[in-house]
Design brief:
Number of strands of chain A: 19
Structural class of chain B: mainly alpha
CATH superfamily of one domain in chain A: DD-peptidase/beta-lactamase superfamily
Strand order of the largest sheet of chain B: 1-2
Distance between the termini of chain A: 90 Å
Strand content of chain B: under 5%
Number of helices of chain A: 18
CATH architecture of one domain in chain A: 3-Layer(aba) Sandwich
Largest sheet of chain A: 6 strands, mixed
Oligomer: heterodimer
Shape of chain A: elongated
Chain lengths: ~475, ~475
């Protein structure tokens, strides 16, 4: 019986070898996947036992970790000015994961990034518990503060984005209404779940990041794109354009496209059409250019492209523009045209920066736990949206536009270049979204801004971009110019 | 393999055989040192105060296994010197892990105190078996008795009302009120092994008689296939009545391997595996709990559907192992308590988490060594029953390890056996100590010097020699 016994011995060895092979598979090859699985409580507990780094803007701590008494959740995340910075920092929750910078820069904040590998090793030898690095933002706290106050003091729903057109640094990114990420950081499951549900059930959607992930009809602010397309295709600033109070929509029985208030346009040239925001002029121009040229011009400004700032920015889009009527309406930013506030700020910034669009970025630098710099932000050219000449032409038109824009908050010694928009969006009460995109100072721009106030703000159907959005944009610019932007 | 029990004292007349008991004692001390160090590491990393008491535990451990050693010295002096230390090492590491899980207040605890009692009772049983079973061959005489008692024990929980016998969806237990509960299947395993070994040894000629040749295979006669069919139906019966995949798999595997060893014919393995596959398909189609386990095995990372998340346990276990990685989190520094039933079914994943792949592999090798020492005794022992019985015992250990370790690492579907000598649980501990005692008894017989052979008569001149019947070597 020894022969089968020896064979059984071999079989037993083979069984153990199989077990070892499989254990190797689980613990070496499959390990990454398992460790990164969202349901892995061990990874989560481990993270909560470690001091996470800070999120900083101009020396202010926006998010930090505070020691608790709890032996398991040794640190709790704290947001010094929660609702104000929520669109930027995002939240970091044991139960609901994270978003915003907390997610985008997780490996630095968590201390697991490769650039921190050497420090982790030295911590291991010196017996220090590992800590996360810090992330310094490009945000200008003064502008952020003003933008948020301007939106919330009137109870508006909307968003403000401000950029430095020269570098693409994001100076302000604000949503209203906002939420307090501190609500989600507790280690009490029931408490956090209740608050999470409340935030998610809120009809005002305070957790929606309107600045980057909501798309809106741009209304007249889109005329900047139509103008760019026109200038690239033979139009001059003083080219004569349509001035009629209303024009028929081609291909429809009796539908017409009116100017604002149903008036004849006061200016006959392209420049004046921008200044007075004449709908009929731009509808005609769009119809003349055709969908392809309009699309090209928009693509040059970044429409339809993926963008990480490092959060993902929703794609802006022109829609189908299937027939001539749609084309007419698209030319004035209606119909299916959709943009994010970020995209609109980028359009203004590209025009301000001699036609060169810089990649928007939120992170100025990443730092090791001892605050030594790991990596620093370098401005990155995204694309040449228009030639410098055309950019200057559009700038001059926007200066004219600002002159004809009502609303308060004008700054006496600073010239602003701007464009307003009043976007209908099928609201039954006809309360349009008010837009304002601008940059300043016009001759040497350091700030570009986009403001949207949803559903007419406090003015309802009477609202225009000039009346509700422009004052906010001007205040933000003022804060930036004075507060050392 | 040459027998190490070499004769050294040829000149002194009576042959002196190395018993290697000193080696056993030395290895036991070695195991005690490892276990005590492991305990020390756990205490330090769990921020417990380190006192001299720790060494008392180590000493107590040594005393307990020292007693077992003395029993071996007395009643089985020629037994294999490595088997007992290997068991002591596995058991000790298991105790340290349970203590560590107690400190973390893992689900179902505390375990350690109970497990120490089980270990002690196990060692007492071990000593008793060595004392009272003087010769393993006597067991063969009780083959049928063992078989009947074993079957009865096995069937008992399935026939008892669920309130007494059911836990976690399987009917394997007999609750004895405050005394806790026992799993009669664990003991039935050994009794049935005795039955099969004695039955097969007496009937093996029958099985080797060739039946019809068909498709290039010598098929056994239908009536000779009865034992396989009975074993197969038995294991299906266990699945149906007791919902216990592990025990079912274990029995079927043991019968198959013992048949193979007894008959030396691979056709039994082939037949058995075919029947097994058939059984699997039938079980999969008939029983929900089998389907759940198979689906969990196929994709442990599948998202939960609705309220039920059958993959949770396996997934958390796998995540623990993944977290441990190659070198582990260190004893006491992982989170094995996050896995449900970390102390029983999933103790191997707790080892994988805290001692890493390296530790888990070392443990597998310790088990492998233990099985190989068992098989070595089977090879060396002279009687067929002993060979078959020892082979069966060693294979039982192997299959238990394979089924449980394969289950928690996702190699095969989870079946709910426990890692021998490690996992929390009394019945398994006691039964496995009996198993080891029997293995030592056989290895003692294998290495015991034979009664001095009669001096060979001088060979007669070839012309006058008788015709001798020479047995064909096996």
């Amino acid at each position: 019986m020894n022969k089968p016994l020896r064979r059984v011995a071999l079989a037993m060895m083979a069984m153990v070898v199989l077990l070892m092979g499989n254990a190797t598979y689980v613990q070496v090859i499959q390990a990454d996947e398992l460790n990164q699985d969202g349901r892995n409580v061990r990874t989560r507990y481990e993270r909560y036992a470690r001091e996470r780094g800070q999120i900083i803007a101009q020396g202010q701590s926006l998010a930090s970790s505070e020691k608790t008494e709890d032996p398991v959740y040794k640190f709790q995340r704290h947001y010094a000015n929660g609702p104000l910075y929520a669109p930027v920092t995002g939240f970091y929750s044991f139960y609901y994961g994270s978003n915003g910078i907390e997610r985008a820069e997780d490996s630095i904040l968590d201390g697991t990034d490769d650039s921190l590998a050497f420090r982790r090793l030295s911590d291991l030898f010196t017996g220090k518990s590992p800590r996360g690095g810090s992330v310094e933002l490009t945000i200008n706290p003064a502008m952020q503060q003003v933008a948020y106050e301007q939106l919330t003091k009137q109870g508006f729903t909307g968003s403000v984005v401000a950029l430095d057109p020269r570098t693409g640094e994001i100076l302000a990114m604000v949503n209203a209404p906002s939420y307090d990420p501190n609500l989600l950081t507790s280690s009490d499951n029931n408490e956090v779940a209740a608050q999470w549900n409340e935030l998610n059930d809120d009809p005002d959607r305070p957790m929606a990041n309107r600045a980057v992930s909501e798309i809106y009809p741009p209304g007249s602010t889109f005329k900047l794109i139509t103008t760019a397309a026109a200038l690239q295709n033979g139009y001059k600033p003083n080219s004569k354009v349509e001035t009629a109070a209303r024009i028929p929509l081609p291909g429809t029985a009796s539908a017409t496209l009116p100017n604002y208030g149903g008036n004849t346009c006061k200016g006959e040239t392209l420049t004046m059409a921008v200044a007075y925001s004449c709908n009929t002029a731009f509808a005609k121009i769009a119809g003349e250019l055709g969908p392809e040229k309009l699309r090209e011009a928009a693509a040059a400004f970044g429409f339809g492209e993926d963008l990480q700032i490092p959060m993902s920015v929703a794609k802006s889009d022109l829609g189908a523009m299937a027939d001539a009527a749609a084309l007419y309406q698209s030319g004035i930013g209606q119909r299916d045209v959709r943009v994010t506030p970020m995209q609109n700020a980028m359009v203004a910034a590209a025009i301000a920066n001699d036609g060169t669009m810089m990649k928007p970025q939120l992170v100025k630098a990443t730092r090791a736990p001892d605050m030594t710099e790991l990596d620093t932000f370098r401005p990155e050219e995204l694309k040449q949206s228009v030639s410098p000449e055309i950019a200057h032409m559009i700038r001059d038109m926007m200066i004219q536009s600002e002159k004809h824009t009502k609303g308060s908050g004008k700054i006496s010694n600073v010239q602003i270049a701007s464009k307003t928009g009043t976007a209908q969006h099928g609201d039954p009460d006809d309360r349009p979204h008010g837009w304002y995109v601008a940059f300043a100072p016009a001759e040497n721009p350091t700030i570009a801004v986009a403001v949207i106030v949803e559903n007419g703000g406090d003015e309802g159907a009477e609202a225009t971009g000039g009346s509700i959005a422009a004052p906010i944009g001007r205040e933000v610019i003022r804060a930036g110019l004075q507060g050392g932007g | 393999m040459p027998e190490p029990a070499a004769q050294t004292g040829a000149t002194s007349g009576a042959p002196r055989v190395l018993t290697r008991r000193g080696t056993e004692l030395f290895m036991l001390v070695f195991a005690a040192v490892i276990v005590t160090s492991a305990l020390l590491i756990v205490e330090v990393s769990q921020e417990q105060s380190v006192t001299q008491e720790l060494f008392l535990y180590g000493a107590a451990f040594l005393v307990l296994f020292g007693a077992a050693h003395v029993a071996v010295r007395r009643w089985a002096p020629y037994a294999d010197p490595l088997i007992l230390p290997l068991v002591a090492l596995i058991n000790g590491i298991g105790l340290v892990m349970l203590h560590r899980l107690d400190l973390a207040e893992a689900y179902g605890g505390p375990f350690t105190a109970k497990q120490i009692i089980f270990t002690t009772v196990g060692v007492i049983l071990f000593v008793l078996v060595l004392k009272f079973v003087k010769d393993h061959r006597t067991l063969a005489q009780y083959g049928y008795t063992c078989g009947f008692v074993g079957l009865a024990l096995l069937a008992l929980p399935g026939l008892l009302p669920g309130s007494i016998s059911e836990a976690n969806g399987a009917k394997l237990w007999i609750r004895l009120g405050p005394l806790g509960s026992i799993q009669p299947g664990e003991f039935a395993k050994i009794l049935l092994l005795i039955f099969f070994a004695s039955f097969l040894v007496s009937k093996r000629e029958l099985f080797t008689t060739a039946g019809k040749r068909f498709l290039g295979i010598d098929w056994p006669r239908a009536r000779d296939m009865m034992p396989v069919l009975v074993a197969w139906m038995l294991s299906i019966g266990i699945v149906v009545l007791e919902k216990d995949l592990g025990t079912s798999l274990l029995f079927f595997g043991i019968v198959l391997v013992m048949l193979y060893i007894a008959t030396e014919r691979a056709v039994w393995v082939f037949l058995g595996l075919s029947l097994f596959s058939l059984g699997c398909i039938v079980a999969f189609n008939l029983f929900d709990h089998v389907q759940v386990r198979v689906n969990t095995w196929l994709d442990p990372l599948a998202p939960a559907t609705g309220d039920s998340d059958p993959g949770y346990q396996l997934r958390t276990g796998l995540m623990g192992m993944a977290k441990g990685g190659i070198d582990g989190s260190g004893l006491g520094k992982g989170m094995p308590e996050r896995t449900p039933w970390a102390a029983s079914d999933f103790i191997l994943s707790a080892i994988g988490e805290e001692l890493g792949l390296i530790g888990l592999m070392a443990l597998f090798l310790v088990y492998l060594l233990l099985m190989m020492r068992g098989l070595r005794s089977a090879l060396a022992v002279r009687d067929s029953f002993g060979k078959l019985f020892a082979g069966g015992l060693a294979f039982t250990l192997a299959l238990q390890l394979f089924v449980v370790a394969g289950g928690v690492t996702g190699l095969i579907p989870m079946t709910g056996l426990t890692a021998p000598f490690m996992a929390a649980g009394g019945s398994s501990m006691l039964a496995n100590y009996v198993l080891i005692a029997l293995l030592l008894r056989i290895s003692d017989a294998a290495r015991r010097p034979q009664a001095p052979a009669k001096p060979k008569p001088k060979q007669a001149p070839i012309a006058e020699a008788h015709t001798e019947l020479v047995e064909r070597p096996r």
